[in-house]
Amino acid sequence: MKAITLRKPEKNADKKSLAEIVKIMWVRDKWLYCLLIPGVLYFLIFRYAPMYGVIIAFKNYVPFLGIQASPWVGLDHFTSFFSSPDFLRLLGNTLWLSFLGIAVAFPAPIFLAILLNEIRFSVYKKLVQTCIYVPHFLSWTIVIGLTHVLFSINGGAVVDLVETIFGVRINFLAEPQWFRPMIILQGIWKGTGWGTIIFLAALANVSPEQYEAAIVDGAGRFRRIWHITLPAIRPTVVIMLILTMGSVLNTGFDQIFLMTNSLNRSVADVFDTYVYNVGITRGSYSYSTAVGLFKSLVGIILILTTDFIAKKVDKESGLF
Questions:
Q1: pLDDT number for residue 1
Q2: pTM for this prediction
């Protein structure tokens, strides 16, 4: 029987093959890579280049001296922020709004996407999708304007309706206990329709044969949703949840700022509006940068923590 001899692989075989693969990909998809240039330039210029200014969080920044010449103060701004009486109030208000948004607003696109996926009449489905996408394209100024028209204490349609039914005239725009529900409802109305796009795209990959097989086996509509639809979008849901957790301390400046007034300020002040008031209005650039850096660090920690937990629960889930 003839002996089989194994050839010793060349020393640079892997390197050559990798270089050849990269060359083939570049030649084949060079125009696609060229399309990446505007996006890469955008992130380099507007996202990464400004990170240089973060060092003013550790300095007493004076515009006339510049970043380099401004005196170094170390962690003094962070110490002042954490020891200030505003810190706990801002943290509480921000976390309340964020977690209410995650608990109420985050599941809304998922629920709506499942409902749209069950519609079989394509014309009606497209009409509904078009209608629910429209609020996303409205600016927060218009949304807040509509809110003031509907909920104004003087002639607001919703206020008049509540008074007619319950006999009580409620000032929704001024009473602090109504601020958070108003913010969450605005977010749901504006963002739910647009948020369904990514979940509908995930559901589009589900083979219709799975639903047909389930129907043959006698599975009802809710059984099909539970055993086919939800597992199909589970990885997408996990990834979106991870990304949402990274912005827990970012409640949105425009909406909060426009809805804030002197009567609801106790529950309306969040980190985003605080950075504006301290940094722009008062000119404390270093202090406001320290607050912004704190928000970013918390966001990174939450993203990594949520991703780690997601991988422990389901190895197929996770972002990294």
A1: 44
A2: 0.81
